[in-house]
């Protein structure tokens, strides 16, 4: 019953203008700062922006939580609004960097910013795509997310638990991959690469996939525009000389791009993810617990 009420609320909210959704999210962001929901964000910001004062970090944390909540409130737009509305809300920049006549698959490398669902929906209207997903624990939410992806474009979503073989087949069939590698997937198959100067468990999937499929790597990013102006997806030139001869250098290049985008849009990066949960053997663990000393 609770899930159906949530879906009904999101359906109602999808009729609202972005400015109203942003106002609601701003209020809820202030509320979230007083709850356990803010703990991971505040710990990550303390680690990645040590030069900021506690007050400055708290302001940034609140802005992030508001942006994150706004992206959740906007899910109804993706699930029920006509594609024409999404096309108006999500502007494109740098599309000339994406070749239209290449026989090679493309890997769109993108960081976890709060606009990732808007980005995926808009890009699904442009390209035959493929992406990884983890099925949502709630059956109704999972069904609605799948339906939204099916109605907006030709995108195949693969359960990441089934491994990489289905992904390789899809890419060899000409589908382009929407790829977000900047999460802590645990110690297995990860290497530690600096992210904001901190060794972060990083999966080497990007250079491996690029070699296996002869794909182009095109970085792109989606950010919420100022005010109530929607979103912008920006595409950058394809990476040259990637992958190189050294896996560590390839992954450092990847993390450096993601860090640059997180610094450009610090309130929109996914600080609510426990990015530094997995630590090198010699380092003390991060305690993503509440309360936490954040001075």
Give the SSE map.
Layout: H1 2-13, H2 18-32, H3 39-48, H4 54-73, H5 75-80, H6 83-89, E1 90-93, E2 106-109, H7 116-124, E3 129-133, H8 139-152, E4 155-159, H9 165-172, E5 176-179, E6 191-195, E7 198-202, H10 205-213, E8 216-224, E9 231-235, H11 247-264
Parallel strand pairs: 1-9, 2-5, 2-8, 3-4, 3-5
Antiparallel strand pairs: 6-7, 8-9
Helix pairs in contact: 2-4, 3-4
How does this structure look, described?
This protein is an alpha/beta fold and 295 residues long. It has one domain (18-264). Helix content is 43%, strand content 16%. It is built from eleven helices and nine strands. The protein has helices at residues 2-13, 18-32, 39-48, 54-73, 75-80, 83-89, 116-124, 139-152, 165-172, 205-213, 247-264, and strands spanning 90-93, 106-109, 129-133, 155-159, 176-179, 191-195, 198-202, 216-224, 231-235. The strands form two sheets. It has a seven-stranded mixed sheet, with helices on both faces. Strands 6-7 form a two-stranded antiparallel sheet. Helix 3 (39-48) crosses helix 4. The longest helix is centred in the N-terminal third of the chain and has 20 residues, at 54-73. The chain is globular, with a radius of gyration of 19 Å.
